[in-house]
Amino acid sequence: MSSLNPTIERVTQRIIEKSKDSRRAYLDLIDREADNQPERSAVSCSNLAHAFAGALEDQEALKTNAGPNIGIVSAYNDMLSAHQPYGRYPERLKIYAREVGATAQVAGGTPAMCDGVTQGETGMELSLFSRDVIALSTGVALSHAMYDGMLLLGICDKIVPGLLMGALRFGHLPAVFVPSGPMPSGVSNKEKQRVRQLYAEGKATRAELLESELGSYHSPGTCTFYGTANSNQMMMELMGLHIPGAAFFQPGTKIRQALDRAAVHRVAAMTKNGNDYRPLGHCVDEKAIVNAAVGLLATGGSTNHAIHIPAFARAAGVQIDWTDLSELSSAVPLLARVYPNGSGDVNHFHDAGGMGFVIRELLGARLAHADVIGVGEERGMAQYGQEPWLDEDTLDWRDTGPSGDDEMLRPASDPFQPDGGMRLVQGNLGRACFKSSAVERERWTIEAPCRVFQTQGAVNEAFKQGELDKDVVVVVRFQGPRANGMPELHKLTPALGVLQDRGYRVALVTDGRMSGASGKVPCAIHCSPEALGGGPLSLLEDGDVVKVCAETGELSTTADLSARTPAPDPVPDMGTGRELFAMMRAQADEAEKGGSAMLAVAGL
């Protein structure tokens, strides 16, 4: 048996070393919490009466402390298609808990906002900080000392990272994430992209655009492109926090219900008073974090996780940065091409072998840690390299076999490209992320005069006026966490795509985020330090030559910035509740650390 890939081993050891103090402090915390958590029988009768009053048929079991009590934290709402299925989950999860002598209560709910709904709207400026709110809401839900384990119900962009960040502060409890699965495939992603670009050029009507979008997003379940939401599910698999193989079975299917049932049974079996205690804080260690990053790189996942991985890692006392991600990317081959990096969606990916195939290949090539604890019946990652199936009504696992579509999924011995395609670019304009897996190699280097903007609306207006019909690096600044909450700039994708299709050499440089579903156009995103407060992007002027190069890892300008005065910081806008988040903007740290106000103030 060969040893772990040397690059994976080296980066892991570096993360362990630099996390030594913070990880020790974290483990000490959760060990104290485990020791200090009172038995329910020792809690005040008045407290217990408040907690049990609404428990109906579970009241007697709770009163007699008959078995573990599981706290359900749900991100249910019926405006998000991905979260709509969760509406009926609590009643089912409670039944599954009773099957093994446990009880379950809905501990609390968290917000669940959709970047797809807020794209280009003012509400997007609340998006990144909704992750902190979700973490805080999770903490409030779990603050009642009534629970022996956690079931975490969430899927989409900031929701899974936020749930994990909050749950990790109660890391003495075991936890299982419970996904609900993707919606069936609709209008092809290629067709959707075609209509979007036609609309951007004025060649399709709004009615035609809406019809196309409704054909794609059409029923309960997660959106089927491989953006941040589905990347979340991939990472939970690589970290061992799902029942093995749970990520991409569709809602309402028998196997989805069997996986949900297994999640409840497993969390009940992993509690402190059993013989298989697996606290979340010990499951999420340095190796699990590296596995999450490796999975992101191997599947061409969302760039948003260059922010989310450092944030939830910090909540567990683990320090990881973009240098680590970029170095891991150099060793991890690209095994999957899922839209926007390919033509098929996550349903096609799942049907071709999905997560079981990817994990088996990564483990076989010694590119992932096999000894992550996980929540499967067997400790470690081996079961995650298989696929679940129903043998009559019994849930079981089997080998995934070869790829069912080599245009979608390839073995580690014959990847789409030898590296994971997420690169660090840096220079006199700061540090940024470049997702090379989504961009044709001949566009990995763009050097051109820049046009500087402060809103994506201004970019689209310049596009409509023909001002960008040339080789150009579009710079959109004052979009960082402290400036306006770091919104995604997805509205830029159609216009920049059209310019590229017209034959121009085009790139985007921004301190904002780009959608997890972005692709095609070379982008240096999440620039740190951000423009607010005098960052390098605040010194650029129209016409300065800017170079973005994924080959050499360069982000620079030939202009002499040393004598320039920074552009004035914009005054934050009010409305849509944005003023309520002023304290978060003021306290947020840089994107490379996760762009979190909560973690920065907590000193984590």
TrEMBL record:
The protein's required cofactor(s) are namely:
[4Fe-4S] cluster
TM segment ranges = none
**Pfam families, A to Z:** ILV_EDD_C, ILVD_EDD_N
UniProt catalytic activity: 6-phospho-D-gluconate = 2-dehydro-3-deoxy-6-phospho-D-gluconate + H2O
Q: Which UniProt keywords apply?
A: 4Fe-4S, Carbohydrate metabolism, Gluconate utilization, Iron, Iron-sulfur, Lyase, Metal-binding
Record-annotated Dihydroxy-acid/6-phosphogluconate dehydratase N-terminal domain positions: 68-376
Q: How is the cofactor bound?
A: Binds 1 [4Fe-4S] cluster.
Binding-site residues, [4Fe-4S] cluster: 156, 223
Q: Which family does it belong to?
A: Belongs to the IlvD/Edd family.
Q: What does this protein do?
A: Catalyzes the dehydration of 6-phospho-D-gluconate to 2-dehydro-3-deoxy-6-phospho-D-gluconate.
Protein name listed in UniProt: Phosphogluconate dehydratase
